[in-house]
Amino acid sequence: MLLSTRSPEKRALAKQLGADVVVDPIHEDLLGVSNQFTDGRGFSVCFEASGDTGVARQLILLAEAGGTIVWVGTYPPNLDIGVPVYYMHSRDLTIRDVRSSPYAFPKALQVLPKLNLQPMIKVYPLNDVIQAFEAQKTGKNVKIMLKM
To answer: Tag placement on the chain: N or C end, fewer CB within 10 Å?
Structure first.
């Protein structure tokens, strides 16, 4: 598993949770690291969860032949990333959106008990809501929750 994020805290957490490779996309070549890690084969499934339109397009180059690209992030309504149709066709790639499958949520619920999500969640009491929003703005946290 390869994870790419600008956040040093999230890269450290990804390593702690078992990522094989973490990439700083500002200072490292994501495609180059991916090709080195997979011997140029690419990944069978690639997820984009940041909403970064450049990364959404780059996933097409990170997927192996027959691979699947899953766009999880939220993108502008009229976004056109210029998908290279011939490249997609010749590599037999599939693009999916997380809301496409009626089976995604039941499958996710089956996996949840197997995951250690605690390191990814920071909980604040409701009366610390301002502090929680400030912490979220730093980009260092994966998920922030408010406890009532």
So the answer is: C
What are the strands of the beta sheet with 63-71, ordered from one edge? 43-48, 63-71, 94-97
Tell me the two tokens of residue 137. 């703005």
3-class DSSP string for 83-108:
CCHHHHHHHCCEEEECCCCCCHHHHH
* Gap between the Cα atoms of 13 and 121, Å rounded: 11
Structure letter (DSSP) for residue 73: S
Q: How far is CA 43 from CA 14, 23, 72, 109, 125, in A?
A: 17, 15, 17, 24, 40
What are the tokens at 87? 């490249």
What residue ranges define each of the domains in the chain, with the CATH number in brackets?
A: 2-116 (3.40.50.720), 117-148 (no CATH)
Mean pLDDT of successive 10-residue stretches along the chain, which has 148 residues: 91 90 93 95 91 86 94 86 89 83 74 83 93 89 89
pLDDT of residue 101: 63
